[in-house]
Design a protein that fits this description.
- The chain is α/β, with parallel strands linked by helices.
- It has one domain (5-159): Rossmann fold, CATH 3.40.50.
- It contains five helices and seven strands, in the order ββββαβααβαβα.
- The protein has helices at 41-50, 65-74, 97-104, 119-127, 145-159, and strands at 5-8, 15-16, 27-32, 35-40, 55-58, 110-114, 132-136.
- The protein has a four-stranded parallel β-sheet with strand order 5-1-6-7, with helices on one face. Strands 2-4-3 form a three-stranded antiparallel β-sheet.
- β6, α4 and β7 (132-136) form a beta-alpha-beta unit.
- α1 packs parallel to α5 (145-159).
């Protein structure tokens, strides 16, 4: 089976917001086109760990700016592909779904990390023929260690490297924060 794709949103996943101002998570602020973003060092480390199990793809309105800023700021791999969005709402679907379908196709396994799934995302994931995992993040925390471990187990199960494991997500069971 082909290595799964990991679609990564940025705002609410790596760029955190809504945390208590007096107790920010481990990370730093970075200005991106004049807009301050708090980038999580812990989430960056988790994504580096997942890079051995997934093909990482930016799935964010940041588009090409993700590769311009994040590798240098957080030590993430450079040259990752990014999706480009035309902003079109197709039949009431989430604004990212058309670009995801065009990039990934219907059968390749994929996991998608985002803080803003809507009902159309869950319907799409449930109806998609390929193994699909939606991972919902809390924007004040981002991708947790437990979620990253769950993604690694899911990818390993798909590849058959976990003896006797049944791949979760052959339907669509979301990993919650």
């Amino acid at each position: 089976m082909q290595i799964p794709i990991l679609l990564i949103d940025i705002d609410g996943v790596i760029s955190l917001f809504g945390f208590a101002p007096g107790t920010p998570p481990d990370g730093k602020f970075l200005l991106v086109d004049g807009i301050p973003h708090f980038l999580s060092a812990a989430v960056a480390g988790r994504l580096r760990g997942l890079a051995a199990h997934f093909d990482l793809v930016w799935c964010s309105g940041w588009e090409e700016k993700a590769d311009e800023y994040l590798p240098h700021a957080l030590g993430l791999p450079a040259g990752l592909p990014h999706l480009t969005f035309d902003g079109a709402d197709r039949d009431g679907r989430h604004w990212k779904l058309a670009a995801i379908d065009a990039h990934v196709g219907p059968h390749r396994p994929l996991a998608w990390i985002d803080d803003a799934f809507d009902a159309s995302c869950h319907r799409w994931a449930a109806e998609r023929p390929g193994p699909t995992q939606l991972v919902t993040t809390d924007p004040a925390v981002g991708l947790t260690a437990a979620q990253a471990a769950g993604l690694q187990r899911w990818a390993d199960a798909l590849s058959g490297s976990v003896k006797g494991a049944v791949p979760p997500g052959a339907g669509a069971e979301p990993l919650q924060p």
